[in-house]
UniProtKB/TrEMBL annotation:
<keyword id="KW-0677">Repeat</keyword>
<keyword id="KW-0518">Myosin</keyword>
<dbReference type="InterPro" id="IPR027417">
    <property type="entry name" value="P-loop_NTPase"/>
</dbReference>
<keyword id="KW-0505">Motor protein</keyword>
<feature type="domain" description="Myosin motor">
    <location>
        <begin position="1"/>
        <end position="219"/>
    </location>
</feature>
<keyword id="KW-0547">Nucleotide-binding</keyword>
<protein>
    <submittedName>
        <fullName>Unconventional myosin-Ic</fullName>
    </submittedName>
</protein>
<keyword id="KW-0963">Cytoplasm</keyword>
<comment type="similarity">
    <text>Belongs to the TRAFAC class myosin-kinesin ATPase superfamily. Myosin family.</text>
</comment>
<dbReference type="Pfam" id="PF00063">
    <property type="entry name" value="Myosin_head"/>
</dbReference>
<dbReference type="InterPro" id="IPR001609">
    <property type="entry name" value="Myosin_head_motor_dom-like"/>
</dbReference>
<keyword id="KW-0009">Actin-binding</keyword>
<keyword id="KW-0067">ATP-binding</keyword>
């Protein structure tokens, strides 16, 4: 009951919405119950929507609190800090850690593009003498994850949608067939003897900019 109160909705109405679907056919409204899998998906979709809106509300609230309220301070300098190193490596790394580390790869790429690459190009264009900063361009890792048709996410989408007996291990096999030979990707099957000792048969490894991570495909 406390949850319904926080959401500001009638509990009976919400329960009905999460466990039944409405179909309008030829002007007639039909209500049918959802099976367990469909109801679970509806629950998860609601949770994601609530989380997304709460996060947006919080960000707007923080931005509003940081905004200049005194016009005399409008031209004051502000220092912004961006912490992009929330990298996760555990004994068991799942899809959640994969998403978090992919996000960090994208932030690192943005940092490289805006801070290192573009600034050094500006120095060069203006003829400024400086000591070039060497950096690893992680675009190759971002492409490995997000490239259309042959990135890890595309392969996962394809495997989830294809007919037949798709499973966690057929997904792993598809990764091996598509990405085998990529310098930043390896599996137990593709690895050398030394690496196989520290990898499970249900894992693939990505060589991120911040280090190596073994991801388990189960689930």
């Amino acid at each position: 009951m406390q949850l319904f109160g926080l959401l500001g909705v009638n509990g009976t109405v919400l329960t009905e919405a999460l466990t039944h679907k409405k179909i309008i056919a030829k002007g007639e409204e039909l209500v049918s119950p959802l099976n367990l899998e469909q109801a679970s998906s509806a629950r998860d979709a609601l949770s994601k929507a609530v989380y997304g809106r709460t996060f947006t509300w919080l960000v707007n609230k923080i931005n509003a609190s940081l905004a200049y309220k005194d016009e005399s301070l409008k031209n004051s300098s502000v220092i912004g800090l961006l912490d992009i190193y929330g990298f996760e490596v555990f004994q068991h790394n799942s899809f959640e850690q994969f998403c978090i580390n992919y996000c960090n790869e994208k932030l690192q790429q943005l940092f490289i593009e805006l801070t290192l690459k573009s600034e050094q190009e500006e120095y060069e264009a203006e003829g400024i003498t400086w000591e070039p900063v060497q950096y690893f361009n992680n675009k190759i890792i971002c492409d490995l994850v997000e490239e259309k048709f042959k990135g890890i996410i595309s392969i996962l989408d394809e495997e989830c949608l294809r007919p037949g007996d798709a499973s966690d291990f057929t997904f792993l096999e598809k990764l091996e067939n598509t990405l085998g030979g990529h310098p930043h990707f390896v599996t137990h099957k593709l690895a050398d003897g030394k690496t196989r000792k520290v990898m499970g048969r249900d894992e693939f490894r990505l060589l991120h900019y911040a280090g190596e991570v073994n991801y388990n495909v189960n689930g």
